[in-house]
Write a structure and sequence with these properties.
Blueprint lengths: L1 H18 L4 E4 L4 E3 L5 E5 L6 H5 L1 H4 L3 E2 L5 E4 L4 E11 L6 E6 L5 E5 L1 H4 L3 E5 L15 E4 L7 E9 L4 E9 H36 L2 H20 L13 H25 L1 H4 L1 H23 L6 H24 L5 H22 L6 H27 L7 H4 L7 H28 L3 H32 L9 E2 H15 L6 E6 L4 E3 L3 H14 L8 E7 L7 E9 L16 H10 L3 E7 L2 E14 L13 E5 L4 H10 L6 E4 L2 H8 L9 E6 L6 H8 L8 E6 L6 H7 L3 E4 L3 H19 L15
Parallel strand pairs: 1-6, 14-16, 20-21, 20-22, 22-23, 23-24
Antiparallel strand pairs: 2-12, 3-4, 3-6, 5-12, 6-11, 7-10, 7-12, 8-9, 8-11, 13-15, 15-19, 16-17, 17-19, 18-19
Length: 765
């Protein structure tokens, strides 16, 4: 039975071979014929054989049948000769054309020995000028003469240092026109999609000024050019240039690769999240750019395998980069990973079609462009999702519950506002008529209480506007620093308990709020008022802007600690305290949670805000009025600090003895400006004794920084001694400038606040 199966298999193979066409026939019923079905081929490796040698009986026996429609020879060293017999049997006088569909072929010679013996009839190819083509089409087309015998022989010689992939057909003019129209229609659709995506990227770039969209727009243009070169739609623009199609193809391919690399840097913000990978991407992108220049200048001098290797290596690296980013939960890495895997798989399949591993003409012609369009659509979906962050996922949370008390709140606020205005006017009149200090102090306290009532009315009105969705849009951008300063000043203006609030900001400079600035200011004020302590324990409020900008959306993080015991996460009461704060966070589409570290409870708030970064002109920034005083012996650490502070416009003084420093400070009321005092723990000075003698002479805005080499010195202990901050000598180069900015900012806020200089023990969460 087994032998019978083998015999059956051999018979089926022989039947297939013998049934194959041995002659290419074009008649009235057959308007197209693929040469691969009837032709045979021979490879002249040494490129030494002439046409006479190839046409001789000696080499005629060496031709092997093709037996495939799509001819894929891969990388061939030498000339590929193709021979077939042709019979034209049409009754109508229809032009018959020979079409070689392979734009990247460098040399193509056509011979008709039955008519012209050993004379070449057409010299085509990318290494020859486009003007050589008698029929100027994207593909190589040769018109079969009308005086051919009933059966004649056709010879083709193909040569290229690129992989040879060709589809050779005999067609009637009408058939060729229909096929060309289909190809142009599909090309137009793909180019139209790329153009639409490009316009969307330009819109995003104008809207956000983020270079990511501009780079991806350039990538889309490069893909369009790459597609046109694959179909040889650009050679006709340079009719007298040689290898122009290959040069533009190499430039477009490597430019697109370079654009993908730099787009990936900006899309995942690798400089912030993966700094080592960021340096690798910069190096790879630079190498791709340099190779683009090399392949444009001398494409025939560099092996095409080098280009393919660089493309594959870069895409593998970007895929690994996407997987690492997704594992590390880098923002927006999900869309990027899907897009990168799509491009990697699609390009790998397309590359195998080039080198003959996957014999598919459709994949070779359209696979790369379709893959890039799918990848671009995935990125575009991610961009749209980033434009409206958390919109879908938080739609339910952002909808505040409707309450029947809306009308009551509106009526209550209007009635209270009239009475508050009357009380405020009366207090202003009494303040002008008051003479004794006790009366003035009483009136000041009453006006503070009246301001608190006004603030409660503002909360009621804001809560009512949120419920009715009747908030007015923000007219002008507002700087984030100005918003924070206003919120802090309002909290101090409303304070009735001499509470201590320490406000620290990070990366808030040059930031303009474009939307919901009033809501954000109310939130900061409410956090300061509701979470304050009625003891000497300070409330620390840190405000940090993160650099994950997408379409102008930035995450603003607010951290408050330590929280009073009266603050709970599960607060179901409808009040103007925690419930009001929760409403503001939900309206801003933010997240919040309470955490506990030891005995310290803290609240963390994440808010997506729409911002614009506006660089400031340093010449227009007035110098800070606070003086800088250095106290300590001259050593390497003090000299290092002086070199760091020289760039500042502040006045700098240096004292080596405590007595001279005390004489300079004198009494607080005789000094016109505040000071930032840097106390160096050297030369035998005892920090706590130094601070005890400095404290009575310090103004409200004065700040004292302890710089110590003592590794056992902690920030909590330094705070307990009365210092505002602590800095290790080893951190002078990296942290002193940032620390000075924080202390000067804090001093400005405390300038008009009557706060005590006593700093209690600080507990970190």
């Amino acid at each position: 039975m087994f032998y019978r199966l083998i015999l059956l298999f051999l018979l089926s193979i022989s039947n297939t071979v013998w049934s194959a066409s041995t002659i290419a026939i074009i008649d009235d019923s057959n308007n197209a014929f693929n040469i691969g079905e009837s032709g045979s081929y021979f490879i002249d490796v040494d490129q030494t054989l002439s046409f006479d040698n190839i046409a001789s009986d000696k080499y005629a026996k060496r031709f092997r049948p093709l037996n495939r429609d799509y001819l894929q020879f891969g990388m061939v060293k030498g000339n590929v000769w193709i021979r077939t017999d042709v019979a034209i049997r049409t009754t109508r006088k229809t032009p018959i054309l020979l079409e070689i569909h392979y734009p990247r072929l460098q040399y193509l010679d056509i011979y008709l020995p039955n008519l012209y013996e050993n004379q070449v009839q057409a010299e085509l190819g990318g290494a020859r000028p486009y003007s050589n083509r008698k029929i100027q089409t994207p593909n190589y087309v040769f018109s079969i003469p009308t005086n051919t015998p009933p059966v004649f022989t056709l010879y083709l010689r193909l040569s290229s240092h690129l992989p040879i992939n060709a589809e050779i057909e005999l067609k009637t003019l009408s058939k060729m026109s229909i096929d060309a129209q289909k190809d142009l229609t599909f090309t137009g659709i793909l180019i139209g999609i790329l153009l639409t995506l490009f316009v969307c990227n330009v819109f995003f770039f104008i809207k956000t000024s983020h270079p990511m969209y501009l780079i991806y727009g350039a990538l889309l243009i490069g893909i369009a050019i790459l597609h046109l070169t694959l179909h040889d739609q650009v050679s006709q623009l340079f009719p007298n240039q040689t290898n122009i199609q290959e040069r533009i193809y190499n430039l477009a391919a490597l430019s697109c690769l370079c654009a993908i690399v730099f787009f990936s840097r900006l899309y995942l913000d690798t400089k912030e999240h993966m700094p080592r990978m960021d340096k690798v991407l910069i190096a790879i992108g630079t190498i791709d750019a340099l190779l683009a220049i090399v392949f444009v200048i001398a494409p025939e001098q560099v092996n095409i395998l080098a280009l393919s290797f660089m493309v594959v290596f870069t895409l593998i690296l970007l895929t690994v980069h996407a997987i690492i980013a997704f594992i590390n939960s880098v923002p927006f890495s999900g869309y990027y990973l899907v897009a990168r895997l799509t491009l990697f798989c699609g390009h790998f399949a397309w590359l195998m079609s080039i080198y003959g591993i996957i014999p598919s003409a459709t994949l070779f012609e359209w696979g790369l462009t379709v893959t890039i369009i799918i990848e671009a659509m995935i990125h575009f979906t991610g961009m749209m999702a980033q434009t409206t962050p958390l919109l879908q996922r938080r739609s339910e949370k952002s909808k505040l519950p409707q309450n029947d008390m809306t009308d009551l709140l509106s009526d209550l606020s209007s009635r209270l506002r009239r009475q508050i205005n009357i009380i405020g006017g009366g207090l202003s009149h009494l303040e002008q008529a008051a003479t004794s200090n006790d009366t003035k102090l009483f009136i000041t306290s009453s006006m503070t209480a009246n301001n608190n009532l006004k603030n409660l009315i503002e909360r009621i009105e804001l809560l009512n506007d949120i419920k009715e969705n009747s908030l007015t849009e923000q007219a002008h951008p507002l700087t984030l620093d100005q918003l924070i300063d206003t919120a802090y000043s309002n909290a101090q203006r409303l304070d009735q308990d001499n509470t201590l609030i320490e406000l620290n900001t990070y990366k808030t400079h040059q930031v303009e709020i474009l939307q919901n600035a009033a809501i954000l200011q109310h939130l900061i004020e409410s956090l300061a008022q509701e979470f304050k302590h009625f003891t000497d324990q300070p409330l620390t409020l840190n405000i940090t802007r993160h650099d994950t900008n997408r379409d102008g959306i930035t995450i603003l993080e607010l951290t408050c600690y330590p929280l009073p015991t009266r603050i709970h996460e599960n607060n179901a009461n409808f009040d103007l305290g925690m419930h009001y704060i929760t409403h503001l966070i939900q309206y801003l589409k933010g997240e919040w949670h309470l955490s506990e570290n030891g005995h310290t409870r803290s609240m963390n708030i994440q808010l997506p805000i729409r911002v614009h970064i506006r660089p400031l002109n340093n010449d227009l920034i007035p110098p800070n009025p606070l003086d800088i005083i250095l106290f300590g012996q001259e050593d390497n650490d003090l000299q290092k600090a002086l070199s760091v502070l020289q760039a500042r416009a502040n006045k700098i003084e240096h004292f080596t003895t405590l007595e001279s420093l005390l004489d300079y400070l004198d009494l607080p009321e005789k000094r016109k400006t505040g000071s930032i005092i840097l106390v160096f723990d050297n030369g035998g000075h005892i920090p706590h004794i130094t601070q005890q003698r400095l404290l009575p002479l310090m103004r409200n805005e004065d700040q004292c920084l302890l710089i110590s080499n003592n590794v056992k010195m902690s920030l909590d202990y330094a705070k307990k001694l009365g210092f505002d901050e602590l800095l290790a000598c080893s951190e002078l180069d990296s942290q002193l400038e940032h620390m000075m900015s924080r202390l000067i900012q804090k001093g400005d806020r405390l300038k008009n606040a009557s706060l005590s200089r006593i700093n209690p023990l600080r507990k970190t969460p």
